[in-house]
Design a protein that fits this description.
With 224 residues, the chain is mainly alpha-helical. 49% of the residues lie in helices and 3% in strands.
């Protein structure tokens, strides 16, 4: 097209005779056709590459469809942890729920790792879920109580300890059970004020009572 523009504008040494013989429109079309002929091999190469890519994708999809899908809850294998923790096509897909345990229902103002947690796991299984993303379980800061502003990466949040289990195990008495708190947003300061003294009492009983001496010794030897 640039050559045609030059011819139409009167540039070049042989412009006038060409214009007189063929006219400007015919010369412009000839220049365009010449450019298309030059680009034809490149376009053909692009079409060939695109066609081959489609064939490869179709074969990969067919192989993925023919591969066996893992049974519900079966491990996905080591490849699941590679490439950004994304499973391969033939590894199957899994669904799950993100829920911090503090959001579970509980009688003492906060969700705990007790019976409600087991009920939630049973529901996940019945619904076909395979993953429970719990979010960080570390001790939260004392201002915002966010699981992402933990005070220690190696410790758990003591407010998640199930008081009913401590009573069942004999680490607390029935009379130690605190007053029930209403459902709704967790009032962490109030929950901590009610639970922490009970947790300290249960820890003291665990460490000093002859009833639990054998269990404490076994746990310590296991961890050492």
């Amino acid at each position: 097209m640039q050559a045609a523009r030059q011819l139409r504008c009167g540039h070049g040494t042989q412009v006038a005779p060409l214009l007189q013989q063929h006219g400007p429109c015919r010369i412009a079309r000839a220049a365009q056709q010449q450019q298309q002929r030059l680009q034809q091999p490149q376009l053909q190469a692009l079409r060939t590459a695109s066609s081959r890519a489609r064939v490869v994708r179709c074969r990969a999809d067919a192989a993925a469809a023919a591969a066996p899908t893992p049974k519900l809850g079966a491990p996905l294998g080591p490849a699941y942890g590679e490439d950004g923790n994304m499973p391969d096509w033939h590894k199957g897909r899994r669904a799950g729920v993100i829920l911090h345990p503090t959001s579970l229902p509980g009688p003492y103002g906060i969700g705990e790792l007790g019976q409600e947690a087991f009920r939630f796991i049973d529901w996940l299984h019945s619904a076909g879920m395979q993953v429970w993303q719990v979010l960080p379980l570390v001790p939260p800061d004392q201002e915002f109580y966010s699981p992402y502003s933990g005070l220690d990466t190696n410790c758990g949040n003591p407010l998640l300890i199930d008081l009913e289990s401590l009573i069942t195990e004999g680490l607390l008495e029935e009379s130690d059970r605190p007053a029930a708190m209403p459902d709704g947003d967790v009032q962490f300061a109030e929950v901590a004020a009610a639970k922490q003294p009970l947790l300290q009492k249960a820890a003291a009983t665990l460490l000093t009572s002859p009833k639990f001496a054998g269990e404490v010794t076994r746990q310590v030897s296991t961890q050492s």
